[in-house]
Amino acid sequence: METLLLEIHDGIGELVLNRPSKLNAMNAKFFEELPTAIEILDSDSMVRVIVIRASGPHFSAGLDLHDMAPGSQNVQEAKDIEPLQRGFLALATTKKPTLAAISGYCIGGGLDLVAACDIRIASQTAIFSLREVRIGIVADLGSLALLADAIPLPVLTEIALTGRDFDANEAQRIGLVQTLCNTPEELAQAVATLASQIQANPPLAVQATKSLLIQQRTQRLLQHLQVAASSNVALMQTQDMREAISALIEKRQPHYHGN
Questions:
Q1: Exposure string (b/e) for 217-251, b if CB count within 10 Å is 16 or more?
Q2: Is the CATH number 3.30.43.20 carried by domain 4-199?
Q3: Chain segment 56-66, per-residue pLDDT in tens
Q4: Average of per-residue pLDDT values in the chain
Q5: pTM higher than 0.85
Q6: Are 84 and 170 in contact (CB under 8 A)?
Q7: Are 245 and 70 in contact (CB under 8 A)?
Q8: Domain map of the chain by residue range?
Q9: Which of 81, 57, 54 is nearest to 68 (CA)?
């Protein structure tokens, strides 16, 4: 795989985002490889816990706008967005417990990815943002539905509508992050310890417990992804979306006209 690394040891499968020179931004290859990687880990009987982490100081800066700018793909119907959603859906519905280790930027698609995990642990360096609204689209990879189970709705609404950045302390305060570590090194140790504690329990009981916990959210997520994809098909035809992307790339203030 080009954008991801798979490491399996002692019953723990690690999925590592591996484009550190690009801040682990998500390009077309990433969206191809993610569903395959999750399937490999989900089907391996030796893997009892899945850990998502990243190479380098940043988890992910989100969508690689040079490769995957909204509107640059041939998106005509909601089904055209489904391939991008597939890996996130697989992660959110895997029968195995999932942990996210977060340092540095966790932006847009990066936040979508950790939202699909069961438990999120971060270092003090983490910076979060749901930035989709700032590029003229909605978050269509599942975070709006998944985070509604973790964050009070008014807080999630404010974060989603402003697209603002927020730090690790706020993330823990609002419930996005369960555990906060002082350094990336402490984060790695905390995640390893928690994964080992889960891995040591009877695997069938762990999987049954998780299945019960996510039973309702799975159905809601499937419906949400369909609606979000349809919304973005319409938004990608607007002048405002194209202006948002152009302004971001050109590093200037956008000028919106509501069409």
A1: beeebeebbbebbbbbbebbebebbbbbbebbeee
A2: no
A3: 999 999 999 87
A4: 92
A5: yes
A6: no
A7: yes
A8: 4-199
A9: 81
